[in-house]
Specification:
- By secondary structure, this protein is mainly β.
- The chain is about 10% helix and about 45% strand.
- The strands form two sheets. Strands 1, 3, 4, 6, 8, 10, 12 and 14 form an eight-stranded parallel beta sheet that branches.
- The radius of gyration is 15 Å and the shape is globular.
């Protein structure tokens, strides 16, 4: 976790983290993450690999992500390789990027969750749903 006065955290290319990351600060990842990431803003370097779900207000992805992505504003750069479902409000994909998964706007996801909650009272409307997809 970032300290109260820090606004930017960097995970270097020589760093591997096994576990989930929650950051109130903006996060720049050049290393390898084996776990879920939840942060305000994520910038991923070209040599970075994330094996887990990503949840961020804004995300700019240039490396490999194996897992679902949920972001209000999402930019997938030409060197990015994504394996997982993508949920977004605003989406930009550069030519050359590879995505193996389904795309759906957050508004559609919220509507589907509301329908599921209406038909199944056991579904909690405020509960976030994270899909984690791992490949070997």
């Amino acid at each position: 976790m970032a300290s109260g006065n820090s606004t930017f955290s960097v995970i270097g290319s020589d760093v591997t983290i096994k576990g989930d990351i929650a950051a109130s600060a903006d996060l720049h990842v050049d290393g390898t993450i084996e776990g879920d990431i939840r942060c305000a803003s994520l910038v991923q370097g070209e040599t970075s690999a994330i094996h887990g779900a990503v949840i961020a207000e804004t995300a700019r992805l240039a490396g490999k992500v194996v897992g679902s992505i949920t972001a209000r504003e999402l930019v997938i750069l030409k060197n990015a390789r994504i394996e997982g479902d993508v949920h977004y409000d605003a989406l930009t994909i550069e030519q050359g990027a590879e995505v193996d998964g389904r795309f759906s706007p957050n508004s559609q996801r919220q509507a589907q969750h509301a329908v599921a909650a209406a038909s199944d009272p056991a579904v909690d409307e405020d509960e976030d749903e994270i899909t984690l997809q791992l490949t070997s």
